[in-house]
Amino acid sequence: MEFTRFQEKAREYLPPEKLPILEEAYKFASEKHQGQVRLSGEPFMEHPLQTAYILAELQLDTSSLAAALLHDIPEDTGLPIKDIEAKFGPEIARLVDGTTKLGKVSLTASGAASASQAENLRKMLVAMAEDLRVVFIKLADRLHNMRTLDALPKDRQLKNAQETLEIYAPLAHRLGIWELKWQLEDLAFRYLQPQEYQRIARLVDVKRTQREKFIERAIQILKRELDKAGIAADISGRPKHIYSIYQKMERYAKLGKHFDEIYDLLALRVIVNTVQECYSAVGIIHTLWHPLTDAFDDYIANHKPNGYQALHTAVMCLGTTPLEVQIRTVEMHHIAEYGVAAHWRYKEGGKKDAEFEDRVGWLRQLVDWHRELSGAEEFLESVKTDIFIDQVFVYTPKGEIKDLPKGSTPLDFAYRVHTDLGHRCIGAKINGKLVPLNYQLKNGDIIEIVSSKAPRGPSLDWLNPNVGFVHTSHARTKIRQWFNKREKTENIERGKQILDKELRRLGIQTERQALATLFNYNNLDDFIAAVGNGNISAHQIVLKLAAQEEKSKQVAEPAAAPKTTTSAVQVLGVGDLMTSIAQCCHPVPGDKIIGYITRSRGVSIHREDCHNIINEDEKERLVPVEWGHADLPYPVKIQVDAWDRVGLMRDISTLVAEEKVNITSMNLANGNGQRVTMYLTLQTKGLAQLSEILKKIDGVRGVISVSRIGDDVIKQSSADSPGLPKKTGDIGSSKN
Fold first, then answer.
1. Which member of 66, 297, 415, 637 lies 3.0 to 4.6 Å from 312 by CB, making a disulfide possible if both were Cys?
2. Which domain holds residue 248?
3. What is the spatial distance between Cα 692 and Cα 706, in angstroms, rounded to a whole number?
4. Does 473 score more than 80 pLDDT?
5. Domain final residue, candidates 313, 348, 383
């Protein structure tokens, strides 16, 4: 860029007597940077000149422009600040010094560096409070650096882009400098998400010609109507920028809407002379086109904290096409584009901007209060989440300052102080008076939380947005965490009951952790909670156990593998032996089994947890066995406790028959005349089928419980019930 171009831009608004200072600063900087080049290969002086030009576009004062031209000299040439002060005066020297110090501040960090990051943010706020022009120079410096970011390595590109999007663009927004904000956002977005950037750019470009024709026609119609009303207006299309479209698309996607439904892609800006004409123009627009519901915002009567004022409306224009329209005065437009930077335009002309101190008062107050905060983590959190939105500052009873987003309530305050205080909150006092929990805090309020001495938890009503008990995401997160934790505890208890009942009903003894591992859960509590909330059913557990047993059949045999057998059970490491199912525990496929070498009947097959096996003295008679491949039925005994009624046995036997399962024996033990216990021996093909039958029997009317049992239970019942009919089909002892 030639200096003359910058000079012409400055001449548009600066008094002629101020221009020589800029020329002197340019010559001085050019001399000091002589021979220096940037990473992009361009002369180093190009950067300070571009920075100064950006500030001239914002119409900043002479001192700011001169400081922008000189701002890299101390760091890149080693010239002391006192030399700049001697030549250009204390004001310009102070701006250069402040910009140099800010240039050494890194605002992106993680982990252990967060304390340093917080301190750097604090330095920036202090610099802003002392003289905002330092930050304007820094913002312009960052904007030009982002425009030339291609010259940097990839890692530095991403670091600078992230820092720009997180800190500098929101800062420009908080200061109301729209002209810098959108450029910083778009440039940062281009490097952070290049594919998404290009995709949106193509979407916007596809219908550009069509949109331009529509806007041109809408301008002609509106201009004609305003002229009829005697309102002189400058009407133009308002561009929608890439990053703001991306944010809008993200919000619309959550609502199931498409890119084409973003109505404010088409927008008009109407600039008039007076506030009265703003409201008159809105009336004409609403008469001309049908206004959309809930789309009118009056930011003139209720201006934003950064000073922004305008009327916003949206209408159905030229048929069914939504169109957003912004109406503002010339002065409002200047403030909207340049924010608090507009103050220096008036200052340069000798006028005083009476509202300026009000607009930046939040900043000076914030810095003063944050100086009292000792925790870097708290400072960092509040700055990065709350500083760039409306906020309120309140006092604890001890005089400590707490800053919260505007609209916060006593509950938000309580959770900011301590999570437990929020959970135990039962009331609040503001300035010594009791207030409801949905009271909205105001600046300067002294707030005291009334808490329960006994442990208690939050109310679900606190999460109801219609009631307004909490406003901050921090408080909502803590409340949800409490309920999630409580629900998990309840689910764990319920899961234990379901698991124990099913395992007991099937007569299976297994470690819970083994089951959790079977379902790929590392944490036992998570597995049991999944059972408790229904994500894992008892039947799924049975099927998993059966499938696991099936897999074990496919494991490679030891070296001395048995011969091929048609038996339902294979004795590992031994030839084809006669086997029989033990009558004490009735194992079925899916159970873990072990063989016992009898004296006369070959190998008796028991469950590993059978009490006879556990208490066996001659351990050398135990041999490893596994289920074979023969699809044979296995006897299993179950006990059914039920309230006696006509048709009970018929209903149970019919249900079992429907499952194509044979009942080989059935015995009854009478209780007190109202209750009956039945013992059934079923021929099943494994745990999965057994589980399904037990579940269905459990659903028969009058059935109290149903579970798998062994012979010892029946024998004990026989001893206790002399009148028990003789059993049929009993085989007798299984171990001889």
1. 297
2. 203-348
3. 12
4. no
5. 348
